[in-house]
Amino acid sequence: MNDQYPELYQTFQWLIPSQFNIAQACVHRWAENSVEGRRIAIYHEDAAGIRSIWTYTRLAETTRQLANGLIKMGVQPGDRVAIAMDQRPEAIAACMAAFSVGAVATPLASGLPVDSIASRLQDAGARVAIVDTESGASVLAAQARCPALSQIVALDFAHEAVMSWRTLLARQPSTFRDVATRSDSAALLLYTSGATGAPKGVLLPHSALLGSLPGFVASQNWFPLKGDIFWTPLEWASNAGLLNGILPALYFGHAVVGAQGGYPPARVLEILARYRITNAFVSPAMLRELAAQFPAPRQDHMLTLRALAVGGESLSVSNFDWCAKALGVTPNEVYGLAETGCVIGNSAGRWPARPGSMGRVIPGHQIALLDNRGRPCRAGVVGEIAVHRRDSHGHADPSLFLAYWNRPEDTQSAFSGDWYLTGDLASLDTDGYYWHAGRRDDVFRVSGHRVGPAAIEDCLLTHAAVAGAAVVAKPDPNHGASVKAYVVLAPNAHHENDGALQAELQAYVRHQLASYQTPREIEFVDSLPTTPAGTLRRHVLRARELQQAGVTG
């Protein structure tokens, strides 16, 4: 194929207006035109299968009514408005209403336990919480611990201590003039998934949406084309679900799909086929489940995918190949964090996607791999991924976060000069492709050898008996550490003799990797600890090993 990457990267330049508001860009400007306003913004399907359609006009009217309601409740610019709702149109309207009044939208993942919700509400100092049945009871239970939380607005959740969504909106006019916001004004407070430790609040500006567009467009094979419809099962409370998915699609005036309830493989295929989805963003874990249960999905489902972005963890070569063959689309692996947006990725329509690679630097961003002394690494050497505050032309990168909420020391320590240190390790080949080598905290040494879990996990996942794998260091008094693997077996795996299967898997890894990478111990488990988005919470397994070894701290 024609590799267009060099020209795309060299010619891209940011053009960020001084004033910008996400709600105006994603909703109101479309509804201002009667023709555009009739376009479908959201296809919605609840857990019972009941479907509805929201046009841009309906979404804008609901947003304006709710914005008026927030003003009546005393919400001021800069106040945090928590939104704890499932994938439904009202969740988008709630975010847009917060943006409209100049407040900071604080989405919370649905289904969080009370303690997790309380800690986030306390940390954010949220004035108002907007909830549905999925999170209503938990937010109500957490309110007593959150002195700043003066009002809960509830949809489909009744309680004497909450205000009804429908009652609130019925009293409000459907006209509203958005508060003028600078592009660098705070817009979103997103809490990290907890995949690497305690969640932190990441404060993002309105311009972060513009900063996300190059990664979204590239990973979705130059979205939008006429008739494009976007869907992601990822949490709308995450950077991946919002800024790499829902908000960019709405920015371009196209339809998105929101589906409540779980996403077993059969339902994933039903959603893709029913709504004729052309563009999607999913996790590797979801793809593994699909491949295990539906080796040839297009035999029974009419799929219209033209682009598939994959992120959250590395995509194995076998899953890459399965996507291309079974789904008929080359997957575009992407890399990003809540703090940075999507900054590395593939775009099969514009430059070749390499199986197993994170991709190339997305145009508009300046990336380097730094060693322990902050010096750039040469090709082939593993270093820490760092994102510069400015692009290669010297323009400020709008995707970078403003700060960690109420954590000035953490914010300061996350930077080395103008470089944001991601904590992720990778190597760079001579063609500009990045290859993930794990998190900085995940890498350990075995008998003098540096070991990263990614290669071992990818190897184990190619074995027919393995459905999931996680590798951590097990404290070893003689060697400092040994390799331990946690393995989830495939549904059809036979393991009457765990010892025999462990030996088989060890031999399988030893045959393909170095002997020091072979797990000394394999523990079979029913599931692995993950975030709501499906990202492995490896630190939980590391802590378990340290506890079992009697190591503290």
UniProtKB/TrEMBL annotation:
Family annotation (Gene3D superfamilies): 3.30.300.30, N-terminal domain of ligase-like
Protein's name in the database: AMP-binding protein
Keywords (A to Z) from UniProt: ATP-binding, Ligase, Nucleotide-binding
Gene Ontology molecular functions: ATP binding; CoA-ligase activity; fatty acid ligase activity; fatty-acyl-CoA synthase activity
GO BP, one annotated term: fatty acid biosynthetic process
Lineage of the organism: Bacteria, Pseudomonadati, Pseudomonadota, Betaproteobacteria, Burkholderiales
Chain ranges of the AMP-binding enzyme C-terminal domain: 456-534
UniProt similarity note: Belongs to the ATP-dependent AMP-binding enzyme family.
InterPro entries per record: AMP-bd_C, AMP-bd_C_sf, AMP-dep_synth/lig_dom, ANL_N_sf, Mitochondrial_ACSM
Domain AMP-dependent synthetase/ligase: 39-389
